[in-house]
Amino acid sequence: MALLDIKNLSLQVNGSKLLENLNLSFHESMVYAIVGPNGVGKTTLGHTIMGLEGYRNFDGDIFYKGESLKELNIFERARRGITLSWQDPARFEGISIEKYIAASSKEITTERVSGILKDVGMNPEIYLNRNVDKSLSGGERKKVELASILAMKPQLAILDELDSGIDIDSLNNIFDAIHYLRSNGASVVLITHSLAVLEKAEYAFLMCSGKILKHGKATEISKYFSNKCLPCKHKNEPEESVII
Fold this sequence. Notes:
Elements (H helix, E strand, L loop, with lengths): L3 E10 L2 E11 L4 E5 L6 H9 L8 E6 L2 E2 L5 H6 L2 E4 L11 H6 L7 H10 L4 H4 L10 H15 L3 E5 L7 H16 L3 E6 L2 H4 L4 E6 L2 E7 H4 L1 H5 L17
Parallel strand pairs: 3-8, 3-9, 6-7, 7-8
Antiparallel strand pairs: 1-2, 1-4, 4-5, 9-10
Helix pairs in contact: 4-6
């Protein structure tokens, strides 16, 4: 049985069809990628799996460990081991980074929080008592959010554009964190339009216009990045094969 099975999933929001008849399966202890240009439905798919407000009135179904998620809200899905990192992480005025990360686990020490911060490339002496607020850069907030996910120990982690605002050195820390999640039994879904991130996946899905165009080993899907043109029928498709 797959950890997560998506069956004939379609979603319309305000009359616009965002996802169309998607069928995907995610198995335990694997790293997946969902790739494609901006605006094709990648983030929408992540929000739908997580059950965010406005993304729950879909056709088809989503099964997690054989259980339908359709009637479960975001909190119930989180309790079952599903988590989602935001493309633009939220700010929480007045809460320290230590408390923010510790909130992800009932039993976690300051020493453990410090170790997790190191895992994502953040010096605990600098960041442990800083607040999760506007004083942090986008890249710093990304790393804090990933640290909270490591503390949570999810079974399914959906990471949306995790490399956004991240420098090269810190990106290696994040790749190590992905490996850590997988080695501890979690499945990881990377939502990305980055070749470097895709290369960390074992299996990938190529999306355009709310549909899955192709799926297979990540090495096969990586050809999309060299061609820079999606093999689908849409209004922007060139009349001939053109590299753009």
